[in-house]
């Protein structure tokens, strides 16, 4: 797995992902599910997912020690709900009377992986990890599947973080870091 960091690229078989569209709600037999009610979960190659999960845990621990994400567990068990609860508790402790709730609908697919990697570089994520992630995101191919049927065409050039990629929660947290810091100041 560390071989990909040394080379700086992933072999072609480790670049193919399946995006499984799962309905958020039950629509009943014979009824079509509206597009906005589908949850696109990306399932990547096992070797990449294992590498990414290990690296996210290592990077998340490092960022915690640097206090990049105060009072959060970036890269370990960060959740949007945890971020909102943190904001509500902080507001109560500081007796603030107003708050902000962010809508995270379709956030992963719309959040730029390029921006997430740029911020990751700024906060000290090692270059070899960033290079391996950039290679994966740049050359990644995705095929869509719904109700067990997989589309025969592979699509490239995805610009958003894939929901289901172990790096995506950390990437989203990095993208929200400037917003969080602005709100906390």
Structure, explained:
The structure is a single chain. Residues 71-93 and 96-101 have low confidence and may be disordered. This protein has helices spanning 2-7, 46-65, 80-93, 107-110, 113-122, 127-139, 168-184; strands spanning 16-23, 38-43, 141-146, 149-150. It has seven helices and four strands; from the N terminus they run H-E-E-H-H-H-H-H-E-E-H. Strands 2-1-3-4 form a four-stranded mixed beta sheet, with no helix packed on it. Helix 5 (113-122) runs antiparallel to helix 6 (127-139) and helix 5 crosses helix 7. A hairpin with a 2-residue loop joins strand 3 (141-146) and strand 4 (149-150). The longest helix is centred in the N-terminal third of the chain and has 20 residues, at 46-65. The protein is of the alpha+beta class and 185 residues long.
Mean pLDDT across residues? 78
Number of strands: 4
Instruction: Report the portion of residues in β strands.
Output: 5-15%
| Alpha carbon gap, first and last residue | 41 Å
Radius of gyration: 18 Å
Order of helices and strands: HEEHHHHHEEH
Could you name the ranges where pLDDT drops below 50 across 5 or more consecutive residues?
A: 71-93, 96-101
- What proportion of the residues is helical, as a percent range? 40-55%
Q: Total helix count?
A: 7
Give the CA-based shape.
globular
Largest sheet entry: 4 strands, mixed
Helix/sheet category:
alpha+beta
Name the features:
4 strands; single chain; 185 residues; globular
Short summary of the structure?
This protein has about 180 residues and is of the alpha+beta class.
């Amino acid at each position: 797995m560390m071989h990909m960091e040394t080379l700086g690229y992933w072999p072609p078989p480790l670049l193919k992902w399946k995006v499984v569209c799962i309905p958020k709600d039950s629509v009943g037999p014979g009824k079509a599910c509206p597009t906005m009610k589908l949850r696109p979960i990306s399932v990547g190659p096992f070797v990449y997912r294992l590498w990414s999960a290990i690296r996210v845990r290592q990077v998340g621990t490092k960022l915690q020690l640097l206090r990049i994400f105060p009072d959060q567990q970036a890269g370990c068990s960060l959740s949007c709900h945890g971020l909102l609860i943190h904001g509500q508790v902080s507001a109560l402790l500081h007796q603030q009377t107003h708050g902000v709730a962010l809508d995270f609908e379709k956030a992963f697919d719309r959040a730029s992986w390029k921006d997430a990697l740029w911020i990751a570089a700024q906060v000290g994520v090692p270059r070899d990890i960033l290079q391996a992630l950039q290679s994966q995101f740049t050359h990644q191919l995705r095929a869509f599947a719904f109700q067990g049927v997989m589309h025969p065409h592979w699509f490239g050039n995805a610009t958003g973080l894939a929901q289901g990629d172990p790096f995506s929660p950390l990437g989203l947290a990095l993208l929200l870091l400037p917003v969080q810091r602005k709100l906390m100041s």
